[in-house]
Amino acid sequence: MFFVMIGIIFFVFGILFATNVGGAAERAFPVFAQTNPTAGTATSKTLRFVGGFWIPLGAFFIAVEFFR
User: Fold this and answer.
1) What is the pLDDT of residues 44-66, one digit of tens each?
2) Fewest CB atoms less than 10 Å from the CB: which of 17, 24, 29, 36?
C-alpha cells in the first residue's frame, strides 16, 4: 500500500506540473527556489519538464504494488 501512496503522489503532482493546471508550476517554483538557493538556471518550465517524468514514475510505483 505504501508504493501506491507514493505512486499517487508522484502521478498527481506530475500531472499538475506537466500540464500546469492552475499555474501549479509557476506557484511551486518560488517555493522550490526559496528552499534550494542554488537553483541556477531552473525555471517554472523546468518543473513542467520534471513533472513529465514524474507521471511514468508514479505509474510504475502503482504497478509495482499491484503486481507484487
Assistant:
1) 888 899 999 999 999 999 999 99
2) 36
- Considering only CA atoms, which of 13, 21, 4 is closest in space to residue 54? 13
| Residue whose cell numbers read 500546469 | 20
Question: What secondary structure does DSSP assign to the chain, as a single string?
Answer: -HHHHHHHHHHHHHHHHHHTGGGHHHHHHHHHHHH-TT-TT--HHHHHHHHHHHHHHHHHHHHHHHT-
pTM: 0.83
- For residue 39, the model assigns a pLDDT of 62
